[in-house]
Amino acid sequence: MNPDLSEKQVERAENIKKGIYILPNLFTTGSLFAGFYSMVASLNGNFDIAALWIFASAVFDGLDGKVARLTGTTSKFGVEYDSLADLVSFGVTPGLMMYAWALKPFGRLGWLAAFLFVVCGALRLARFNVQVNTVESKRFVGLPIPAAASMVAATVLLFHHFGWSSSYKRLAIIVLIYLLAFLMVSSFRYYSFKDPALIKRQPFGFLLLAVVLLIIAAAEPAVMTFAIMLCYVVSGPLGFIVSWPRRRRLEKAVHKGHGAVAGH
User: Fold this and answer.
1) Which of 161, 245, 248, 257 lies deepest, with the highest CB count within 10 Å?
2) Would you say residue 2 lies in a domain?
3) What is the pTM of this model?
4) Which residues contact 60 (CB under 8 A, 6 or more apart)?
5) pLDDT tens digits, residue range 5-63?
6) What is the CA angle 132-135-138, rounded to 5?
7) Is residue 1 part of a domain?
């Protein structure tokens, strides 16, 4: 045994020798495959197909963690593999797709926007891995990278649905990419949909609303998908603005409390 290795390093090496869990890592591999195929479709100029495969990658990404938790097969290897797959599928792939689809005419500004999207996605994943045990599970800090990639894909599908060329509203597209990059590394809070209360009994109106949304989604899937993703993207900044007065009152109360203690 190498004396320079710590006990934790030896333990991790032995665990890998024993084997890895196949099922959750197959879903992660499916997510990586979908992201890579989306990249291939972008290189071939099939941007609508590329956008659909990003959504397929997001589905696989959502399932791998749930499968691992349900089957009790979570592992450090799976977490690291998932992060690497996410960087490719939701960072590099949408960045390349948007550059080839709409950002190329901007020259340096265009490829820098695509690169900024990728690097902010990487920073977002690194921060998530560091804070995963210290941040409440109901909220994400910063826009999740799969949501940012899905917003990009939804934009492409919306343009394809209406027959708009990538030159239409091109300035708005590059602004969107810079905005998504900023939101990923921001401290805005986003709902994680991991609240156990979601699967408990809900008022009848929730079922009615869900049915109406399903009907609209079936009638206009591209428009509805774009609207849903846009609402989620802006929910972070809106939540920050709405909660600002309450947070200010709390800060003032805490400040007064410290002042009172110091006075004693």
Assistant:
1) 161
2) no
3) 0.82
4) 27, 28, 30, 31, 34
5) 455 554 444 454 455 678 888 999 999 999 999 999 999 999 999 999 999 999 999 88
6) 100
7) no
66 has pLDDT over 70: yes
Q: In this structure, is residue 4 part of a structural domain? A: no
Give the residue among 234, 54, 61 at the shortest CA–CA distance from 153. Answer: 54
Residue 67 — very low, low, confident or very high, per pLDDT cuts 50/70/90? confident
In degrees, rounded to 5, the angle at the alpha carbon of residue 180 between the alpha carbons of residues 247 and 197 is 55
Overall residue count recorded for the chain in this entry: 264
Residue type, 226: F
Residue 235 — φ and ψ, nearest 5°? -65, -30
DSSP string, 33-82: HHHHHHHHHHHTT-HHHHHHHHHHHHHHHHHHHHHHHHHT---HHHHHHH
Domain at 246, CATH number: 1.20.120.1760
CA distance 69 to 74: 6
pLDDT of 71 reads 79
**DSSP states of 118-181:** HHHHHHHHHHHHHHTTTS-TTEEES--HHHHHHHHHHHHHHHHHHT--TTTTHHHHHHHHHHHH
Domains held by the chain: number:
1
Burial 49-74 (b: 16+ CB within 10 A, else e): bbbbbbbbbbebbeebbebbeeeeee
Chain segment 232-254, per-residue pLDDT in tens:
999 999 988 988 777 777 766 66
In tens, the pLDDT along 184-234 reads 999 999 988 776 555 566 676 777 877 887 888 788 899 999 999 999 999
**Residue 25 domain boundaries:** 14-193+201-263
